[in-house]
Write a structure and sequence with these properties.
The protein has helices at about 110-125, 160-175, 180-190, 195-200, 235-245, 255-260, 265-270, 275-285, 285-295, 320-325, and strands at about 15-35, 40-60, 75-85, 130, 140-150, 205, 210-215, 220-230, 275, 300-305, 310-315, 335-340, 345-350. It is α+β, with helices and mostly antiparallel strands. The longest helix is centred in the middle third of the chain and has 16 residues, at about 160-175. The radius of gyration is 20 Å and the shape is globular. The structure holds adenosine-5'-triphosphate.
Length: about 350
């Protein structure tokens, strides 16, 4: 995790402000090992972060910087969600417009960033957690979350999980908790299967429901063309469709791990594996054409990202990725060029 200057003012009656940039993930390897009695699935997966980020800015009142977090009273939470897809560079403003359409539905208390904030309040035994839709009442008690979304929603890139991780990292700092990575990851596991990975980022092998993660070596940088579909695909529906298909092949992650370690594009292209792909293609047949379009445009290999519907085209290098993206004239609502791995949540200096 890269730590930068927090740029916060501390003291009675002042505000702390933290900005965290958090990356999306891809799964170069995803094997579904069966459905458990509790409805979750056991998986073996290799995850890497990619250079497509959401950004979370947190503003929290500090009434007494020296006070232990648990002595603070009644924290209220507020959330604003902005569409950042229009802003090409995360460090460049303006950050976009107040969203309409599907993103509007993210501005409520079900947002994973808010759920993460509540989980952290709980862990720290800080009272509060009520959602303040109207900031007029007690602005001095409100911790404000301002989320700029660039990671596509319900698209197999763990955007919600990334935002939950961003909230944990930012609020851990802003509330002066300093829980440390292990406790944050344990908390993250209660929020979702991908959240523990998103707290750390980089390259990892994950087992169990995906919450048990081990960092693994990645010797090179890989370049991808990301083909983003307009309509989301529900992760639960994709898993259900996968269950209908019966047990999947018993493939292990070794070749993918070797390719990542060696930085070998051809080996990685050959080894990419996603047990959810066939189910995603079944639910969204147009993805077959999207995958073919990526290959026809020059991708070394193309695969569905996680539960889809995002498609990933593996490129030889950054120039190749841009050339492939330029050749994709139709078929996707949005195309991004990214690299992997991309580190973990990064604390940015704030103004
Ligand atoms: P995964 O790859 O972990 O399965 P995903 O990329 O397919 O996730 P997300 O973007 O994380 O999907 O969204 C999954 C669901 O979570 C959406 O239906 C959305 O309504 C909800 N959600 C809650 N909070 C967020 C958030 N901050 N960003 C995106 N989606 C969120």
């Amino acid at each position: 995790m890269g730590a930068g200057s927090v740029g916060a003012q501390e003291g009675r009656g002042t505000t702390r402000r933290v900005r965290v940039r958090v990356p999306a993930k891809i799964n170069p390897f995803l094997s579904v090992r069966g459905r458990r009695a509790d409805g979750y699935h056991d998986v073996v997966t290799v995850l890497q972060t990619v250079s497509l980020h959401d950004e979370l800015e947190v503003l929290a009142p500090v009434t007494d910087a020296a006070a232990h977090p648990s002595t603070r009273r009644d924290v209220l939470l507020a959330l604003e969600v902005l569409d950042g897809a229009a802003a090409p560079d995360p460090d460049l403003g303006p950050v976009g417009t107040v969203p309409v359409g599907p993103m509007g539905g993210l501005a409520g208390e079900d947002n994973l960033a808010v759920r993460a904030a509540r989980a952290l309040l709980d862990e720290l035994a800080i009272p509060g957690g009520a959602f303040a839709s109207d900031l007029g009442g007690r602005p001095d008690a409100v911790t404000r979350l301002r989320l700029t979304k660039r990671i596509p929603i319900a698209a197999g890139m763990a955007g919600g999980s990334a935002d939950a991780a961003a909230a944990l990292v930012a609020l851990d700092r802003v509330w002066g908790a300093e829980l440390g990575r292990d406790r944050l990851q344990a908390l993250a596991a209660r929020l979702g299967a991908d959240v523990p990975f998103c707290v750390v980022g980089g390259t990892a092998l994950a087992t169990g429901t995906g919450t048990v993660t081990t960092q693994v070596l990645a010797g090179g940088r890989f370049h991808w063309v990301v083909g983003i579909d307009e309509a989301p695909l529900s992760t639960a529906e994709v898993y259900a469709a996968r269950d209908e298909l019966g047990p999947s092949d018993d493939v292990g992650p070794d070749r993918v791990l070797r390719a990542l370690r060696a930085g070998d594009v051809d080996l990685l292209g050959d080894a990419l594996h996603n047990d959810l792909e066939v189910a995603a293609l079944q639910l969204r047949p147009a993805l077959v054409e999207g995958r073919e379009a990526l290959l026809a445009a020059g991708a070394v290999a193309a695969i569905v990202s996680g539960s889809g519907p995002t498609l990933l085209g593996l490129a030889r290098d950054a120039d190749d990725a841009h050339a492939i993206a330029a050749r994709l004239t139709s078929g996707f609502a949005r195309v991004e060029v990214v690299h992997s791995p991309a580190g973990g949540p990064e604390l940015l200096a704030s103004s």
